[in-house]
Design goal:
Layout: E1 2-8, H1 12-18, H2 20-26, E2 31-35, H3 46-49, E3 55-59, E4 69-73, E5 79-82, E6 95-100, E7 103-109, H4 118-143, E8 147-153, H5 177-186, E9 195-196, H6 197-201, E10 228-232, H7 234-237, E11 240-245, E12 261-265
Parallel strand pairs: 1-2, 7-8
Antiparallel strand pairs: 1-12, 2-4, 3-4, 5-6, 6-7, 8-10, 9-10, 11-12
Length: 268
């Protein structure tokens, strides 16, 4: 079995104080993809930066205190790559990938955007550059006999079932028609060629949501968004047997505004 978890930690130093370290000690995951780390290595305690039993790769943002992604793997990666070849985003702390035997796994933190601002323009530029890279990665990996798994905070709810209040968010970043269309291209067999693993395993349910605002009672009422995805090439997606959102038992036990999303894959 291969078990992979993705989670936006909303600041790794803060998460470590709230329960991340204990969660990490208990997890059975083989690979963990982190987003919004917001810290450089020297700012993290030793047990957080280099936890025992894990190989770690960090890709911090050049903008201090923002973004940042990381990969934790039980076995040493064969190769690591930071960024995806677009100069604007090479040091933005938004993408890192590692090669493991037969698999390329990546942690992605796609910009969140905000309608009518430069942040939305940045998000659109990122999407325009990232889809061609995803296609190229899929083709290169197939030629090498490798599968691909891109996990992370994609900051787009693809379908109405992916957020509770979809009617009120039709003009909000994260649920704009053009963003949803872009994600449809990622999942189109004749275009991006990837699969939404969690939705394939949970085809007829609302959610399962992975992010809830800290405002109001969003978590208690399960008024959430499903924006944390495990996106895989078809061969790997076909081996997925279980996907769960590790939702905290109560609001006060959360160590991030996101919950870990964990997927189990069978061997070939």
């Amino acid at each position: 079995m291969l078990k992979v978890t993705t989670v936006n930690v909303n600041g790794l130093r803060a998460a470590a104080r709230k329960g991340y370290v204990e969660w990490l000690a208990d997890t059975e995951a083989d690979v963990i993809c982190l987003q919004e780390v917001r810290a450089e290595g020297h700012q993290l305690a030793d047990e957080v930066r280099e936890p025992e039993g894990w190989h770690t790769v960090y890709a911090p943002s050049s903008a201090k205190g923002r973004a940042g992604v990381a990969l934790l793997t039980r076995r040493a990666p064969e190769r690591v790559r930071v960024g995806f070849g677009t100069a604007e985003f090479e040091e933005s702390g938004r993408y890192v990938e590692a090669d493991l035997p037969g698999l390329t796994v990546a942690s992605l933190y796609l910009p969140s955007g905000e309608v009518g601002t430069e942040r939305q323009d940045e998000k659109e530029r990122f999407m325009a550059a990232f889809l061609p890279y995803l296609k190229d990665l899929r083709e290169r990996s197939a030629a090498e006999g490798r599968e691909v798994l891109v996990c992370g905070d994609w900051n787009i709810a693809h379908q109405e079932a992916d957020l509770k209040n979809w009617r009120a968010n039709r003009k909000s970043s994260g649920f704009l028609p053009e963003e949803r269309d872009w994600l449809s291209r990622v999942f189109d067999a004749s275009d991006g060629g990837y699969a939404d693993v969690v939705r394939a395993l949970h085809p007829d349910v609302e959610g399962p949501y992975s992010w809830w605002s800290y405002r109001g009672r969003a978590f208690d009422n399960d008024t959430g968004w499903r924006i944390d995805y495990a996106v895989a090439t078809p061969g790997l997606a076909a081996r997925a047997v279980k996907a769960v959102v590790e939702r905290a038992p109560s609001h006060d036990l959360r160590w991030s505004d996101h919950a870990p999303v964990t997927v189990d894959f069978t061997d070939r």
